[in-house]
Amino acid sequence: MATLTVTRPPFGGFSFENSKRNAVLEGNASKMGFNLPPARKTGTTICGVVFKDGVVLGADTRATEGMVVADKNCSKIHYISPNIYCCGAGTAADTEMTTQIISSNLELHSLSTGRLPRVATANRMLKQMLFRYQGYIGAALVLGGVDCNGPHLYSIYPHGSTDKLPYVTMGSGSLAAMAVFEDRYKPDMEEEEAKQLGKVDYIRPHDEANKKGVRAHELEAVHPTGDYKYKRGTTSVLSKVVTTLDLELVEESVQTMDTS
Amino acid sequence: MNTRGLRSQLKDSVPVAGMCPQGAYGVQDSLRSGFTSVKNELLPSHPLELSEKNFQLNQDKMNFSTLRNIQGLHAPLKLQMEYRAARQIQRLPFLQSSHLALDTLRGSDEAIGFEDILNDPAHSEMMGEPHMMVEYKLGLL
């Protein structure tokens, strides 16, 4: 009689069921000369500078897939909380998911404490998560924000180490960007000076045609990352039907929130 | 009820190589798990597999030992009693239970991690065989 197997209750999170199979497939494929598709990396330069009253974060907008440009205008500055933003380099999917998870966690945490979240909290959460996965999550991040203790800037490496510095760069273009920073950084700059410093101005000649520019992000007055609203009249209106609903106010109750 | 026979508890802790192939009808499932070898069964397939399996356990141990050092032995004792009580309120083994009380005690009802996004057990497409799983749990198997 064949043995019946009892399945363990499934638990969430990463499943390693297929990793043996993938290893065997990869071995066989390389023997036959095929290459399995690689994860999309960002091929990035990201940087951050602390100035007198805040932080400027800068990132380029190109995503590469090997030697080919996959996306000319991708957004690498991710929202974490109203006062904290994070640039991500490395594997594109990893940076996206990690920053989204941390953003959700930070929101829950700030609802629980009732205070604006601090950059150190976000840093600690990111660091603990990346260390837990021992560098298999390839996300190199530049985290910057302003909280009750002033402006802060952290750089976070995929294995979980972090540095708190006045200016940081990450990504494949980090060496060139760091050269610019080392040359021109001064402590306590003004906002405009810091923005000028953050603009990536060492463009390679063949990039001139494709340059989409750098979106610098100033965190003192918070701006949204881009405006995606179309002008009225872009799409022509064919027909319009207006139905008024007759509703009457039955009951109204006001609950004041304790926002202390 | 959480009575586990000794045999089923032992089975969980000691991996037996080559005795129970993972596929259906007891035949090795080459498509999913590759070819059989003793090394394959004993060693984990990914460096993170072991550490992820024990992660929650290790976190709890660390938290309890910190709590013991800060507040004394009574604190982890009381908490562990509550954990045990919460762990006993589950559905039958083949049904998905929400572990709500356990989550609240651990504080993971206010945190989102990969275990909530990837492979959510509530959306799993496989169900264990009811009779087998209950018998396994009671140690009758």
UniProtKB/TrEMBL annotation, chain A:
Positions of the Proteasome beta subunit C-terminal domain: 226-254
PANTHER family: METALLOPROTEASE TLDD, PROTEASOME SUBUNIT BETA TYPE-7
Positions of the catalytic residues: 44
The keyword Translocase is annotated on this UniProt entry: no
GO cellular component, as recorded: cytoplasm; nucleus; proteasome core complex
Catalytic activities: Cleavage of peptide bonds with very broad specificity
Coiled-coil regions listed in the entry: none
Protein name in UniProt: Proteasome subunit beta
Biological classification of the source: Eukaryota, Metazoa, Chordata, Craniata, Vertebrata
One GO BP: proteolysis involved in protein catabolic process
Compartments, as annotated in UniProt: Cytoplasm; Nucleus
TrEMBL record, chain B:
Transmembrane segments: none
Cited InterPro entries: Ump1
Similarity comment text for this entry: Belongs to the POMP/UMP1 family.
Domain of life: Eukaryota
Alphabetical keyword list: Chaperone
Protein name as catalogued: Proteasome maturation protein
Coiled coil stretches, renumbered: none
Record GO cellular component, one term: cytoplasm
Keyword check for Chaperone: yes
Signal peptide: none
GO biological process: proteasome assembly
